[in-house]
Amino acid sequence: MRKIYFLFASLLAGNFLFSQATPPPADDNSLSMANTQGLLRTQLTLTPSWMMKGTSGNDSTSISSARTNVYLHGTLEYYWTEHFSTRGDIYYFLNKNSAPGGLKKNHSLQVGCSYHFMKGMSLDPYVGVCGGISLVQISPMDFMKGDSTFLPNYQVPSHLDPVWAPRVGMNFYGQHVFHFFVEAQYLMGTYRPAIGPILSINEIRISAGLGFNFVILHKEATVRPAI
C-alpha cells in the first residue's frame, strides 16, 4: 500500500512540475504578423471606379465617362516570399446604365503579381501588374453601320476584350487573422464588338476594406506574439 501511495505522490509531483515548465499555448488573438511568406490573403469589397477617356481611331471616346461604376471585387493572393506574391481578382459589375450606349456589362477576371517593399513588418506597401479579360456590353443604341445602314435601337453584342493594369496599394496587418487594405489600379482596354462602336474601357478603380489571412506554410515564422 505504501508503494502505491508513493507512486501516486510521485505522479502528482511530476505533473505539477511539468505544468510549471511548459508555457500555455498562445491565444490566437494575441498574435500579429511578423513574416508574410506562406500567407494566403483573401478579401471581398465594393469597388468604385471612374472611366477615363481613351483613343479609339481618331476619336477620344469612352463608356459612361461622367458616371461612377461599382463592382463587387474579390481577391485571392499568395505570398511565395516576403517580397513576391501572385494573385487573382474577380470584378462583377453591379450598377448597369440603361441609357442608350450606357455600360451594361463589364465583368473581369485578372491574374497578376506584386512586389512588396518591406519584410517582417505590419505595414505592407506594394506595386503590381495584372492582365486579364473583360466581358463588356453596352445598352441598345441607334447605330450607323458603315455609311448607309441605320440600325435603330441596335443591341450591341457582348464581347471578351483583353485588359491590363498597374496597381499600387498598402496592407495593414494587425491580428494574424485580419488585415485592412487599400489599393488603386488603372485598368486599360478597348471594347471591340463585331458590329458596334469601338470604345475605351479605361478606368481608375479604388478598393478598400477588411480581409482575412490563412497561413499555409512557415506558420511559426509567419506569426509572432504581440508585445
In total, the number of strands is: 15
Strand content: over 45%
- Tell me the strand order in the biggest sheet: 2-5-6-7-8-11-12-14
Helical content (DSSP H or I, runs of 4+): 10-25%
User: Tell me, what's the shape?
Assistant: elongated
User: Which stretches of 5+ consecutive residues score pLDDT under 50?
Assistant: 3-8, 11-31, 55-60
- The number of helical segments is 2
CATH class: Mainly Beta
Through-space gap between termini = 51 Å
In a few lines, what is going on in this structure?
With 227 residues, this protein is mostly beta strands. It has helices at 2-21, 219-222, and strands at 31-33, 39-51, 54-56, 59-61, 68-79, 84-93, 103-116, 123-138, 141-145, 149-154, 159-173, 178-191, 199-200, 203-215, 223-225. The strands form four sheets. Strands 2-5-6-7-8-11-12-14 form an eight-stranded antiparallel beta barrel.
Description:
By secondary structure, this protein is mainly β. The chain has helices spanning 2-21, 219-222, and strands at 31-33, 39-51, 54-56, 59-61, 68-79, 84-93, 103-116, 123-138, 141-145, 149-154, 159-173, 178-191, 199-200, 203-215, 223-225. It has a single domain (30-225), classed as Porin, CATH 2.40.160.20. It is built from two helices and 15 strands. The strands form four sheets. An eight-stranded antiparallel β-barrel has the order 2-5-6-7-8-11-12-14. A two-stranded antiparallel sheet has the order 1-15.
